[in-house]
Design brief:
Number of helices: 14
Strand content: 5-15%
Mean pLDDT: 94
Helix content: 55-70%
Order of helices and strands: EHEHEHEHHHHHHEHHHHEH
Shape: globular
Number of strands: 6
Structural class: alpha/beta
Strand order of the largest sheet: 3-2-4-1-5-6
CATH architecture of the largest domain: 3-Layer(aba) Sandwich
Radius of gyration: 21 Å
Largest sheet: 6 strands, parallel
CATH superfamily of the largest domain: P-loop containing nucleotide triphosphate hydrolases
CATH class of the largest domain: Alpha Beta
């Protein structure tokens, strides 16, 4: 079984390229997209159409509901299952998406966590009612680790506290004793190179199409079914529509904000991809298909 990854900024054409390549090399596709994983978030996530999903078997799409938790650890578990399926079906595998952090976590590995039982979870849940106190408690015991975490980052503070309560070790000491296990096999990574002017134009067009396809109705439905509390409800495309629904911005301002915030995300994605991966093969979209097939 062969594997490869296709990454690039949002609206760069990753999904269509992955489908073309998958048809040529007889592959399944594993999505690494922080929104496509969720059911009911269809227009905002710009996930592949049902026709495209029917053409090539996809994984990592429509797996969870927006209020359910997802993480790099869960992605790695999913990846292992998909690899087994590919091997059983004699298929190759293409990993594709804009959330390259998941790919980095897969390649570099994640440290295992200590066994966290129900008693530890319950004890930590009580402590987490006072987030600032938890942060200061951990900061006093592991300043090097906690200085990298924002005082309002409840997810990472809770994770650090769970490690401490379950193992009796500070997070720094735990990770020192339990280093990540890297992948034994190197995955070729292909990056779509695109200028920011072209990307901004594509993003503006896609934003208008999202509105035409029913963006506002989708966000209304998401709010009704899941409230505004899930992390996914703060995503680009959702938060701006909620601002519009609250009467804080006009429809034109809403569209402009979505385009601006998406362009800013694309810039961050481009920087991350260039700096976090070794031996990255970058080329414009129109050249990358031939490059991948040649390799």
């Amino acid at each position: 079984m062969k594997q490869l990854a296709i990454i690039g900024p949002t609206a760069s054409g990753k999904s269509n390229l992955a489908i073309k390549i998958a048809q040529k090399i007889d592959a399944y596709i594993l999505s690494i997209d922080s929104l496509s994983i969720y059911k009911d978030i269809n227009i905002v996530s710009a996930k592949p159409s049902q026709k495209e999903l029917d053409t090539i078997r996809h994984f990592g799409i429509d797996m969870l509901y927006p209020h359910e938790y997802f993480s790099a650890e869960i992605f790695i578990t999913l990846y292992k299952k998909v690899v087994q399926i590919c091997q059983n079906d004699n298929k190759n595998l293409i990993i594709v998406g804009g959330t390259s952090f998941y790919l980095k976590s897969l390649i570099q590995g994640l440290s295992p966590l200590p066994c966290i039982d129900a008693k530890v979870k319950s004890r930590v849940a009580l402590q987490m009612r006072d987030l600032e106190k938890c942060y200061k408690f951990l900061l006093n015991r592991d300043s090097a680790y906690m200085q990298k975490i924002d005082i309002n980052d409840s997810y990472r503070i809770e994770k650090a506290l769970l490690i401490f309560e379950a193992s009796g070790l500070t997070p720094s000491k735990w990770f020192e004793n339990n280093p990540p296990l890297c992948m034994s096999e190197e995955i070729p990574i292909y990056n779509i190179s695109v200028t920011r002017d072209v990307l901004r134009e594509r993003i503006a067009k896609r934003t208008k199409k999202m509105l035409e396809d029913g963006l506002i109705d989708e966000v209304c439905s998401l709010e009704k079914n899941y409230s505004r509390l899930p992390n996914a409800m703060g995503s680009i495309g959702i938060s701006e529509v909620l601002e519009y629904l609250d009467g804080n911005v006009s429809k034109e301002e809403m569209l402009e904000l979505i385009s601006i915030h998406t362009s800013q995300l694309a810039k961050r994605q481009q920087t991350f991809n260039k700096t976090q991966f070794n031996n990255l093969i970058s080329a414009p979209l129109e050249e990358l298909e031939d490059i991948i097939c040649f390799h």
